[in-house]
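Much of the work behind modern protein science is quiet bookkeeping, done one molecule at a time. Below is the pair of lines this work produces for a single protein:

***
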Amino acid sequence: MKTPIFTGSAVAIVTPFNPDGSVNLGKYAELIDWQISNGTDAIVAVGTTGENATLSGEEHRALMKCAVDAAHGRVPVICSTGSNDTAYGIETSKAAEEAGADALLWVTPYYNKTSQHGLIHHYDMMLSAVKLPVILYHIPGRTGLSVKPETFAELAKRPQVAGIKEASGNVSYAARLMEMCGDDLPLYSGNDDLIVPLMSMGAKGVISVLANILPRETHDICRLCLENDFASARALAMKYLTLTNALFMDVNPVPVKEAMNRLGMGVGPLRPPLFEMTESDKAAFEAELRKSGVVK
């Protein structure tokens, strides 16, 4: 049985930028402190929601160090260091380890992808280079690489493999993973709309986009599930379901950064090729923010 790196809600935190497009490390530290003060159980730094695809290596390393320093041991910091280039993934993972990260998040290779046996070799090479525990990240809609449950079951035999962020949106697939791997592969929902269904089957929590704007509420949904109060968890999740869906009306993190800026959190612009929503989408999104009570 493996001890989960965290239970509850981990925020897949956005990367704030200054008006000129440079990384705003001061705001990043401020956001992390606010998240922890509002119940977030772990920080996932420089992931997809953090626009890592458009960060330089230097920026990536600076953000990882900033996240560790800002958290100051209060909650685990999980640094996203996966890559479609094994060598670069190793390099970035070593930097996260040196920065003091508690764990790593490794997305499957994307674009060039790999075979199922190639994926095992890829991860084995990366595991041999670092000592930190690792959460594997399955999001075929982004990467174009679907992983067979049998492949994850094989990877779960590695002591360092401490969990999976499952973001396929396929509840049957997640159930099969949990059936095959049990406590050898703690599972986290990668979809905010599936927190309650997956935790009712044994998932340990969520790596969340919604938590960027509703950290306490996302934490409470998970807490209620962990307390086996699924009726209350379901009611709270349903209260924010349409907002949760609206956060993906454009490419993540476009809507969530729009919401954060609308709330006065000052996270700044997006990095191209991501751009602001159209005016019609902004109007629809604003209506949803008001309907959910996030803005008055």
In short: Residues 8-229 form a domain with the TIM Barrel fold (CATH 3.20.20.70). The beta strands are 8-12, 42-45, 77-80, 103-107, 134-138, 161-166, 187-189, 205-208.
